[in-house]
Specification:
heterodimer; A: 2 domains; 3% strand; B: 452 residues; D-Maltodextrin-Binding Protein, domain 2; 7-stranded mixed sheet; 21 helices; 10 strands
């Protein structure tokens, strides 16, 4: 009996494995064609240099060496790092507060509020940047006019000093609701026994939030944080659109992504742009990993 | 083919003969670099009667109407009009298509200043074999020199132009007893007087993101920033004496705070025009119509005049904007494409339509002298014959202003150097030197030999 069942079982499991590969095939095909191949091609491109006069030559890692000493690139990386350090904690904190408030069940019209906070995420970032650009307008924008009627000096929200903050405000407005939904969903998944136990132990709403809810949110917060690392370092849409309004504040190297774009499409330097993109990818991996490591180490 | 010919001329010649024998490609091969062998009238007639599909990239609204005139005359040829974006976005797509080797149009709208950017990559077709040289006399001299290559090639047919003048608010000038300035000295005096009398008002706005206007003013001042001296040699003089004079002048007025530097074509800027923040707009011949549809609140208050001059009694202007119709070298139907570009910009009915209906300022001598065009009296300018003012300015644009073969980079560098110094009210001459340096190092990195 055992002699006959073993091959049959093996055959069945092989068939099951084949079915598995079949199921992931559509994904793998698209993944390879749209991500892996372009990535390899970009890597290949980054090893060459093409000139208007003189054509294409193989230069090995020259483009990477150049990028590592490129002040404009380093300046952009530092700027988005600063952006990340200031904007992301603020945005996640807001998302967390909203999620906890909604989950507490003490809000009136909670569905309406939830939708209201989430709606900015549904607004295309192009529209958001244009809308905020209008609000920020230094002379005829509503903020400036309000300041004017109150007899206060209007802050130049599109000026060099405040621009990063203005951008951070747009991004926070867009994504706080998105993070709230992630955290809120995670809160809903917490088993109610924990709350009962906390109640039996005499914990109030604040105590429950601090000692039960937030620790249970750790994986969700972790995910939101990693997404935010990537989002910050790839900042592109918002500065690109604000560039029209403040062309001399936001230059073409304001963020690394903006720099790579302008290298490729303004400077016709696809090869160097590919190298810059690769390096930016490395920076993101390193930062993401560092963040993850820092947080998991603290837990143990 | 090209590779072969470059390395072994003899082999290439043999190949040419062979291809000529096969028919078809022969004409193409001959035109590529040798003195242009004209295409015979018989070939042209044949091509214009052969069913052909052409693709035309342009951002001129309603150009379908002019295209229809062409299709009516040549029923065998069908032109697909595609709007691939205005200016830079279109050039980006065009470059991508050229690189990919497919998807490029046959005929394309290209602004004057971008022609060298596309000839350096050998993307445009020389139109001489298709009779373009014979069109020269129909066009204002400087427009023809703009489309003419270093070796006499004709890279496109002028479509519209933008000789620069000054639109000014007569009511504001009258209120403060200011005469429209005839020289830049008078302009500076008026700037100070006006701003002192009303701190809300600036004599003009020199937009810190508008390389086009700056280049037009530099053109007027007699600057020669870019000259190609050989196929791989460029002379860069972006900070020559004339440009420094310009930078000193504007930098001074901006630092005094009597000239605004707001980015143009933004909401802020439109509102400022409507609310009378700027007493003049130094703009191109396409400016008057543009302004009348974007600053309705100020109708009847504007007038047009030539730009102030550096020396009293002189009559010089520069150009800002304007386009050509060029043929992409990879076209499979060079004859039909070249003839289409020609028809669009020389046919009397087509050119008149562009001038009267699309308000494109014409480059042809005929239209600039045409009463129905120059004698229009728009209400917005209090019945002044604005077209006539600009038609006369058009004759005062000098013919020897050239563009670099990497225009995008030059503009972007300008924003970050000269433009930034204007916006930040810092030393504009220093900004100019920085610009010169950036252009030079970019040109060198692209393999050009750079001289000053």
């Amino acid at each position: 009996m055992s002699v006959t069942t073993a091959p049959r079982a093996r055959r069945a499991s092989a068939r099951r494995a084949a079915a598995g590969y079949l199921f992931i095939a559509p994904f793998m095909v698209v993944f390879v064609a749209m991500l892996v191949v372009p990535l390899l091609y970009a890597g290949y491109l980054s090893l060459f240099r093409e000139q208007l006069i003189g054509g294409t030559t193989f230069v090995g890692l020259d483009n990477y060496v150049r990028a590592l000493t490129d002040e404009r690139l380093l300046g952009g990386v530092l700027r988005v790092a600063e952006f990340f350090l200031i904007q992301v904690p603020l945005m996640l904190l807001l998302g967390l507060l909203f999620a906890l408030a909604l989950d507490s069940g003490m809000l009136w019209l909670s569905r309406f509020i939830r939708l209201g906070i989430f709606v900015p995420y549904a607004v295309p970032s192009v529209v958001a940047a244009l809308m905020w650009g209008y609000l920020y307008g230094p002379e005829f924008g509503p903020i400036a006019q309000l300041a004017g009627t109150l007899g206060l000096p209007a802050p130049n929200l599109l000026g060099g000093d405040l621009m990063l903050g203005s951008l951070a405000n747009i991004v926070t407005w867009e994504f706080a609701g998105y993070n709230m939904i992630i955290l809120y969903a995670a809160l809903r998944a917490i088993p109610s026994e924990l709350y009962e136990a906390a109640a039996v132990d005499g914990a109030g709403a604040w105590r429950t939030a601090w000692s039960v809810k937030i620790p249970a949110l750790r994986p969700a917060l972790m995910m939101a944080l990693i997404f935010s690392v990537i989002g910050s370092f790839q900042l592109f849409n918002e500065p690109q659109l604000m560039q029209r309004l403040a062309p001399n504040v936001i230059d073409n190297a304001y963020t690394p992504n903006l720099y790579a774009y302008s290298l490729a499409f303004t400077s016709q330097d696809l090869n160097y742009a590919a190298a810059v993109s690769f390096l930016l990818g490395v920076v993101i991996v390193v930062v993401s990993y560092t963040v993850q490591l820092a947080i998991t180490r603290r837990r143990t | 083919m090209t590779m072969l010919r470059l390395r072994w001329p003899a082999v290439a010649a043999a190949a040419t003969l062979f291809l000529a024998g096969c028919g078809g490609g022969g004409a193409d091969v001959q035109q590529a670099d040798k003195p242009p062998g004209a295409v015979s009238q018989a070939d042209i007639d044949k091509a214009m009667q052969t069913p052909t599909e052409l693709t035309f990239w342009t951002w001129v609204p309603d150009i379908q109407n002019e295209v229809a005139l062409f299709e009516k005359k040549y029923p065998a040829i069908n032109v697909n009009v595609v709007n691939a974006g205005q200016g830079e976005p279109q050039y980006t797509k065009l470059r991508t298509a050229l690189r990919a080797g497919s998807g490029a149009p046959d005929v394309v709208q290209i602004e004057f200043q971008y022609i060298p950017t596309f000839t350096i990559t050998d993307s445009l077709l020389d139109l001489r074999p298709y009779g373009a040289e014979a069109l020269k006399d129909q066009f204002v001299d400087w427009t023809w020199s703009q489309v003419t290559g270093r070796n006499g090639e004709v890279w496109g047919i002028p479509q519209d132009t933008g000789p620069m003048g000054m639109l000014y608010r007569k009511d504001i000038f009258d209120k403060h007893g200011i005469q429209p300035p005839k020289t830049w000295d008078e302009f500076a005096a008026a700037a100070r007087k006006l701003h002192a009398a009303d701190p809300e008002v600036y004599i003009t706005n020199l937009a810190s993101n508008q390389n086009g206007a700056w280049m037009g003013l530099a053109w007027q001042a007699g600057s020669k920033p870019f000259q190609m001296t050989a196929a791989d040699q460029i002379r860069v003089n972006a900070n020559d004496a004339a440009s420094k004079k310009l930078a000193n002048y504007w930098g001074g007025l901006v630092q005094e705070g009597v000239v605004a530097t707001d980015p143009d074509f933004t909401d802020q800027w439109y509102q400022a025009l409507n609310q009378g923040k700027y007493a003049t707009w130094l703009t191109a011949a396409w400016g008057p119509v543009f302004l009348s549809s974007n600053a309705e609140a100020t109708s009847g208050k504007w007038r047009a005049a030539p730009l102030p001059q550096w020396t009293a009694g002189e009559n010089n202007a520069g150009n800002w904007g304007g386009s050509t119709s060029a043929v992409i070298k990879t076209t499979k139907n060079p004859i039909a494409a070249a003839k289409f570009a020609e028809f669009l910009n020389t046919d009397p009915e087509s050119t008149r339509m562009m001038a009267i209906e699309q308000f494109l300022f014409p480059p042809t001598k005929a239209l600039l002298a045409d009463e129905s065009f120059v004698e229009q009296k728009p209400e917005f300018y209090g019945g002044q014959q604005v077209n006539e003012v600009f038609a006369r300015i058009s004759d005062t644009v000098s013919t020897d202003f050239g563009w670099p073969p990497f225009m995008d980079q030059t503009v972007s560098d300008w924003d970050e150097t000269v433009g930034k110094s204007l916006a930040d009210k810092t030393d504009v001459v220093a900004g100019l030197d920085q610009w010169q340096q950036r252009i030079t190092s970019y040109a060198e990195s692209q393999g050009f030999k750079v001289a000053q």
